[in-house]
Amino acid sequence: MRVCQSLFILFSLYSVLLCPAFAQHTQQLFEEDTSIELSKSLYYLHETDLPLTIGDVSNRRSDFRMHPHDNPNFGFRSQGMWLLTSFANITNEEDWVLTINFSQLDKVDFYLVQDGKVLSQSHQGKSQQEQRFRVPTFRVHLPNPERVDVYIRIESQSSSLITPLKIQPEPLHSTYFQWDSLLWGLFYGGLLILAVYNLVLFFGVKEKSLIAYIGYILAVILWQFVWGGHIHFFFPSGIPTWLVGHTELIFVIIGICSGLFTVSFLETKQNATMAHPIIMLLLFVQVAVGVICFTDVLPSIWKNNLVYGVGLIAICSYIYAGFEAFFNHFKPARYFMIAWSMLALGAIIGMLSLIGVLPSNDFTTYCFQAGVFFESGLFSLALMEKSRSQLELEVAQATDDLRNNMELIEEQNARLDIARKDAIKASNVKSQFLANMSHEIRTPLNAILGFSRELTNAALPTEQQEQVRIIDTAADNLLTIVNDVLD
Fold first, then answer.
1. How confident is residue 121, by pLDDT bands cut at 50, 70 and 90?
2. Tens-place pLDDT, residues 316-348
């Protein structure tokens, strides 16, 4: 009999431990200056065909099951789901703030419930109007240490249901919000400074890859505005429904801009001949993926997986192009390779977090943004290196041209010197020739003139005198001609 009783008690204890409905944990709020992660104490309830109301889930509290993992990623779901957590405030701080550090949920409905009564509620998310921060944030007032329940309904057609939930005192949340605003201001400010700097640089050097880089920076800023939740500030009445359902397009845009920058910066047609056709093909594929996403041909889950898959393949092709260009002695490609390697690491971590392989925390949430920021800075260094290399090449070409011109001038001077010496030599030969000719011609002419003049004074017949006169005149004329030629 005692054996049967013991077995019955053990079976009862085992059943209680296995049934989460009887083991729901109440989080105690002990400290007034610490954030408390609630993701490990979440209970969940999936909706089926019809959405459930707060009244429905309050009555079905025993149907909630504890999340079996520490990772608050519930994957892609076409229907909504409910989360439940309980806590009791035993501190002197009465104002607390609940936050879900993920901005891509379409609908996030908070309900603060005590003894079956809804004390407060808020309806946030991308497609609703009450969200005032970049991530869903719910302020609660806890004046007494009695247990309260927080029910959260989440729904999203464009992303995984990720709920990194935490609670913190209001003063700590204010400090956190200020730091958050400061860091994102540095993020956007740094990118804008890089864009403006390279735009000014473009007007000086007319390098087309600078324009592609500026387009990439603007695409990154647009992506972060949407993915980081800052777009709520531009749509206080709620983000347009079409934009909520097409968030994946920002990944397509940033992928296309990255490809165009890769082609123009690396000059893949000359420096990466093997990677060039692959990149061009992937650019065409990404445009096709963008059209598919724009026209809603595929379900949301398929669209997201297609965008992420093609994006990762494109990143790998860009990295390969960088290595190929570097091995082809294109030195600026070294910064390009480091930049894309950092972004690829951040992208892989972020995507593995989105699909639930890695846990969802601050590191996995923001590693891609950090990778994008440092990648943009390294791209700017790569552009500077490319401009410097082009300037060095132009200087080297100008130096070679000057050296060739100097050699040509020296060769011409040598030829001119030889010609001058030859001319002097020829002039000397000519002078010697003229001197010799002057002596050899004038001497006989003078002799002829002397004899002819002597014969003129002699008594000769008339005919002979005429002949002597002709000889004298001819000799005199010939001497005049010789003098004119030789002198």
1. very high
2. 899 899 999 999 888 888 888 888 888 888 878
Whether 281 and 330 share a structural domain: yes
Domain of residue 192 covers 184-385
At residue 299 the predicted structure's pLDDT band, cuts being 50, 70 and 90, is confident
Enumerate residues 6+ apart whose C-beta is below 8 A from 172: 33, 34, 35
Pinpoint the alpha helices (H) of 328-461.
333-354, 362-457
What pLDDT digit, counting tens, does each position of 47-68 carry?
988 889 999 999 888 889 988 7
Cα three-residue angle 464-467-472, rounded to 5 degrees = 125
Residue 411 within any structural domain of the chain: no
Query: Same structural domain for residues 360 and 251?
Result: yes
* 115 pLDDT above the threshold of 90: no
In a domain, 419, yes or no: no
Cα gap 206→70, rounded to integer Å? 53
β-strand partners of 45: 82
Instruction: Please say which residue of 169, 195, 214 terminates a domain.
Output: 169
Token pair listed for 280:
């061009």
Does residue 191 sit in the same domain as residue 333? yes
Q: Are 51 and 106 in contact (CB under 8 A)?
A: no
Please report whether residue 345 resides in a domain: yes
* CB-neighbour burial class of residue 303 (10 A; exposed 0-12, middle 13-18, buried 19+): buried
CATH code of the domain containing 80 = 2.60.40.2380
Question: Could you tell me if residue 176 is inside a domain?
Answer: no
Segment 447-457, tens digit of pLDDT: 777 777 777 77
The whole-number average pLDDT for the span 387-416 is 84
In the chain, what percentage of residues exceed pLDDT 90? 23
- As a whole number, the mean pLDDT across the chain is 83
Count the domains in the chain.
3
Q: How many CB atoms lie within 10 A of CB 368?
A: 22
Domain co-membership, 223 together with 370: yes
Quick one: pLDDT at residue 355? 66
- pLDDT at 313 > cutoff 60: yes
204 and 353 both lie in a single domain = yes
Give the number of residues written for the chain: 487
DSSP string covering 284-305: HHHHHHHHHHHHT-S-HHHHHH
- Strand 26-29 and strand 81-89: pairing? parallel
Q: In this structure, are 271 and 362 located in the same domain? A: yes
**Nearest 5°: CA angle at 78, between 76 and 80?**
95
- Asked if residue 159 and residue 259 are part of one domain, the reply reads no
**Pick from 125, 112, 111: nearest CA to 162:** 125
Same domain, 244 and 107: no
